[in-house]
Amino acid sequence: PAEVAPVRLQGSVAGVGAGVVSPLGCRPSWTTAMELSAEYLREKLQRDLEAEHVEVEDTTLNRCACSFRVLVVSAKFEGKPLLQRHRLVNACLAEELPHIHAFEQKTLTPEQWARERQK
Amino acid sequence: MSGSLGRAAAALLRWGRGTGGGGLWGPGVRAAGSGASGGGSAEQLDALVKKDKVVVFLKGTPEQPQCGFSNAVVQILRLHGVRDYAAYNVLDDPELRQGIKDYSNWPTIPQVYLNGEFVGGCDILLQMHQNGDLVEELKKLGIHSALLDEKKDQDSK
């Protein structure tokens, strides 16, 4: 089946806010004030993990319900095995994750990110 | 999102369901009905994850995964020729579904345990598969990955 291109938000995006309605109705009503949007998640991850770079992709339309895929690049990941890195991200989004159906994450140190971009 | 991980993961997630077929899975793979695992107390789950070397909690079964991420875990294990593993279907048992998340302090399914230790979900297993860590971890458990044989064949040509 044809896949709808996922919405990608990097940096601030005008127009994303209380006016956005999810077709699947997965966002609870309290999120109109604190929008569970890709932008919101991006800012929170960037702030709490002192990230050099964060990408948040709303993959809801490709999955069955409220879903996100994130990339976080942070020096806080240095020396930490994958599981520990993912737990840091989970802890950062502890409030939001119960409302998210599917969550994919990729966690890189700044060095790993630089190497990957060279490929 | 840049990087090959996204594309590889996407490919695995698009694999057809039920590609296992009866004979492929062998007697070791089992789904826990609601009776077998009996809910999700920490003690019971602790025993469950330690009972077998490779234990996975899925949505659905290896023969019929009900979720792309669970399917990806099944396919990765299949690639490595791991046949004898315990697979528990959280969709059969709501207590198990919540209990295993509390036990591992991990919010999502699938969950992979090696030698009684929580390893991670689909993302982590995929990265371990790609960077060779999974072959190493299986070796520590006395499981010889099928990919090692493939590599040997390729090297000798």
UniProtKB/TrEMBL annotation, chain A:
Note the superkingdom of the native organism. Eukaryota
An example Gene Ontology molecular-function term? 2 iron, 2 sulfur cluster binding
Q: Which GO terms describe its cellular component?
A: cytoplasm; nucleus
GO BP annotations listed: intracellular iron ion homeostasis; protein maturation
Name the UniProt key words of this record, in alphabetical order: Acetylation, Cytoplasm, Nucleus
- Asked if the record carries the keyword Acetylation, the reply is yes
* Main location as per UniProt: cytoplasm
Q: Name one Pfam family in it.
A: BolA
| Location(s), subcellular | Cytoplasm; Nucleus
Q: How does it assemble?
A: Interacts with GLRX3; forms a heterotrimeric complex composed by two BOLA2 molecules and one GLRX3 molecule; linked by [2Fe-2S] clusters.
Q: What does this protein do?
A: Acts as a cytosolic iron-sulfur (Fe-S) cluster assembly factor that facilitates [2Fe-2S] cluster insertion into a subset of cytosolic proteins. Acts together with the monothiol glutaredoxin GLRX3.
Q: Which family does it belong to?
A: Belongs to the BolA/IbaG family.
Protein name as annotated: BolA-like protein 2
Which organism was this protein described from?
Macaca mulatta
Q: Which gene encodes it?
A: BOLA2
TrEMBL record, chain B:
Q: Which UniProt keywords apply?
A: 2Fe-2S, Iron, Iron-sulfur, Metal-binding, Redox-active center
What sequence ranges are listed for the domain Glutaredoxin? Answer: 54-119
Listed GO cellular component terms? mitochondrion
- Any matching Pfam family: Glutaredoxin
Output the superkingdom of the source species.
Eukaryota
What PROSITE patterns does the annotation carry?
GLUTAREDOXIN_2 (PS51354)
GO function terms (MF aspect):
2 iron, 2 sulfur cluster binding; metal ion binding
Q: Which residues belong to the signal peptide in this entry?
A: none
Mind telling me which NCBIfam families this protein's record contains? Grx4 family monothiol glutaredoxin
Q: What does this protein do, in the record's words?
A: Monothiol glutaredoxin involved in mitochondrial iron-sulfur (Fe/S) cluster transfer. Receives 2Fe/2S clusters from scaffold protein ISCU and mediates their transfer to apoproteins, to the 4Fe/FS cluster biosynthesis machinery, or export from mitochondrion. Required for normal regulation of hemoglobin synthesis by the iron-sulfur protein ACO1.
Q: Name the chain's protein.
A: Glutaredoxin-related protein 5, mitochondrial
Which source organism?
Answer: Macaca mulatta (Rhesus macaque)
Gene name, per UniProt, is: GLRX5
